[in-house]
Amino acid sequence: MDFKQLKYFLAIAEEKQITRAAKLLHMEQPPLSRQLMLMEEELGAKLFERGRKQLTLTAAGELLRSKAESLLAQLDETMLEVRELEEGVRGTLSIGAVVSCVSILPKPIRQLRAAYPQITFKITEGDHFLLGEMLAKRAIELVVSRLPFETGILPSKLSTLPLPSDPYVTVFPSSWVPQPRAGGEEQSIGMRELAEYPLLTLKTDNTIRMHEQVVNEFRRHGLEPNIICECSSVTVIMSLIASGIGATVFPKSILNSFPYGDVTMLPIRDANFQSDIGILWLKDHRLSKRAQHFIDYFQSGGAQTFRKNV
After folding, report:
1. What percentage of residues in the chain have a pLDDT greater than 90?
2. pLDDT at 310 (0 to 100)
3. Cis bond upstream, residue 173 (ω within 30)
4. What is the pLDDT of residue 181?
5. pLDDT digit string (tens) for 76-104?
6. Of 101, 113, 141, 281, which has fewest CB within 10 angstroms of its CB?
7. Integer Cα distance of 211 and 209 in angstroms
């Protein structure tokens, strides 16, 4: 059995049909069926149960899939290491980012592009669950995310570089902003005042940390927030605020990615809670040089730059 056959097998396991797998692999169906039959003969084990509409992995197939994914990942890492030794820093750096952390990306990318112009980037935006799946499959190498990283990957399997915490602020439709306080004090809002406004919060089936932080801060003050909408998208929440639907409590750096003219940020004068941010990667995965240089940016001063920006 060779690596090409393992790739064929994984394509069939992913697509659950020989026909779809053949299209994915840009080959004809009969040769692919033949390769699967040869694998099963060589292993002396049935890899798939043949259903009416799709194939299902047997216990032997599940075991082979796990081992094959690991072997092919190791092969990719070895090839990458050899190429980098010979060619220097180049290739594509694949990064996953939650949308609330996108504002962190431009400066390190600009710096890497200046120092290593042969590096290109592939950036995927998604929630914790999607990015966790992609990281586990090694479709991305790094994740920039709010912490904790709410995914199926065990924390013990991840390396994390914490970045400076991001303070929570309120975000209002500009037409709703309260009048400045007397005495020339900085314009701000208190939790009791904020509880009177209709609020939007960020929450999905898999990621609830930010929502819980906001609710818990209200309750710490003996208050219940007036939440009129739970939403899975930062973009949608910001659009609703700009339309005058409600306000929100967000980490301050989010506003760097959404320069709406119809929203206004106010600090919360009687609360001081933070959102943690970090860069994550798989512990058992050798980082490419380009990924290591991205991390080095934050370890050598980029974190301080980020702190100034929030």
Report:
1. 58
2. 47
3. no
4. 58
5. 767 766 665 545 577 889 999 999 999 99
6. 113
7. 5
What is the rounded distance in angstroms from the CA atom of residue 300 to the CA atom of residue 187? 35
Q: Which helix (H) or strand (E) holds 281?
A: strand 274-282
From 124, 133, 136, select the one nearest 97 (Cα to Cα): 124
3-state SS of the chain: helix, strand, coil percent to 5? 50, 25, 30
Q: What is the pTM of this model?
A: 0.69
Nearest C-alpha neighbor of 98 from the set 132, 53, 63, 138: 132
Q: What is the pLDDT of residue 86?
A: 44
Find the mean pLDDT for residues 19-47: 91
Helix intervals (H) in 116-260 = 128-136, 191-194, 209-220, 234-242
Nearest residue to 96 via CA among 281, 260, 261: 281
> In terms of Cα–Cα distance, which of 288, 198, 206, 280 is closest to 240?
198
Q: Are 269 and 190 in contact (CB under 8 A)?
A: yes
Taking the C-alpha atoms of residue 7 and residue 9, their distance in angstroms, rounded to an integer, is 5
Whether residue 186 has pLDDT greater than 80: no
Q: How far apart are CA 18 and CA 283, in angstroms?
A: 34
How distant, in Å, are the alpha carbons of 101, 153, 175, 184 from that of 179?
A: 31, 47, 11, 11
Q: Using CA atoms, how far apart are residues 245 and 242, in angstroms rounded to an integer?
A: 8
Angle, helix 3-15 to helix 59-87, in steps of 10 degrees: 120
Residue with tokens 């390769």: 35
Check residue 167 and give its pLDDT. Answer: 94
